[in-house]
Amino acid sequence: MRFHCLFEQSGTFKNVFKKYGHQAFDYDVLNDYKQTDYIIDLFNEIELEFDNLVNNKSNITIFSNMQPDKDFIIAFFPCTYFCDANQLQFRLLIAGKKLEFNNQAVVRLLNRNNERSRYFNLYLKLCFICKEKGIKTIIENPASGGKNNYLACYSPIPVAWHEKDRSLFGDDLKKPTNYFAINFDMQENFIMFDKNIFKQRVLKLRSRARSELSSAYADNFYKRFIQNVVC
To answer: Which of the listed residues 9, 33, 50, 194 has the most CB atoms within 10 Å of its CB?
Structure first.
């Protein structure tokens, strides 16, 4: 199986997949960790492939040679405009207490709303591409906001798995996370994990890359959801 880790540059999931004998690649516009195999504008790739499918074009993209039985996408789609902080921008205006309703506020909110619309359009196009091409796909996005999380509310692809506490499976953070699955049924294969993992985790909040998860969590994620399906 070939694993394509989109919007990912840390190599965390990629190196786990490679450890278990798969081909795996990181795709991102950045290469801060020197792990990005394809430094590329993924938004542009999504737009081009969507154009291929909808308008019968023949643009060459990263999706061009992907096949249903040979390729698997793990996408850590940017969450900036779907998270609690983005919702707060709108709630402050509605409350009318901390954000004055003036020209500057309206322009700022209009711009932010347009950006959220742009990102959601790209998310929808990515889902459509994966669905139409029959590629097994898991899209990760933080579950901030609970039931009011933007993607949980409006994504046409329902939440396939809600991870309440990532630290239970070896991550450094408890941060709740939603996973959206396309052409793939996320059924957990429950197994006992090495208890030493939990003794080693760092229980403090720290600045992290946008999709960075611990290698222990990535390893357990593979064993829980993927290993039995692709092996």
So the answer is: 9
Cα separation, 85 vs 216, whole angstroms = 28
Residue spans of alpha helices (H) in 56-102:
84-95
- CA dist 28 and 43 (Å) reads 10
Give the up-direction half-sphere exposure of residue 16: CA atoms within 13 A in the CB hemisphere: 19
Which amino acid, residue 91? Answer: R
Q: Provide the angle, in degrees to the nearest 10, between the axes of the packed helices 103-133 and 42-55.
A: 60
Enumerate residues 6+ apart whose C-beta is below 8 A from 95.
none
Q: Which fold has domain 2-79+122-230?
A: Rossmann fold (3.40.50)
The answer to whether the beta carbons of residues 140 and 186 sit under 8 Å apart is: no
**What tens digit of pLDDT does each residue of 114-173 get?**
999 999 999 999 999 999 999 999 999 999 766 788 999 999 999 999 999 999 999 988
Q: Which helix (H) or strand (E) holds 166?
A: none
Q: Give the whole-angstrom CA distance, residue 78 versus residue 85.
A: 13
- What is the pLDDT of the chain when averaged over all its residues? 87
- Do 23 and 37 meet the contact criterion of CB atoms below 8 Å apart? no
- 69: pLDDT strictly greater than 50: yes
pLDDT of amino acid 77 = 97
d(CA 112, CA 89): 9
The residue ranges of every structural domain in the chain are 2-79+122-230
- CA 198/CA 26 separation, integer angstroms: 27
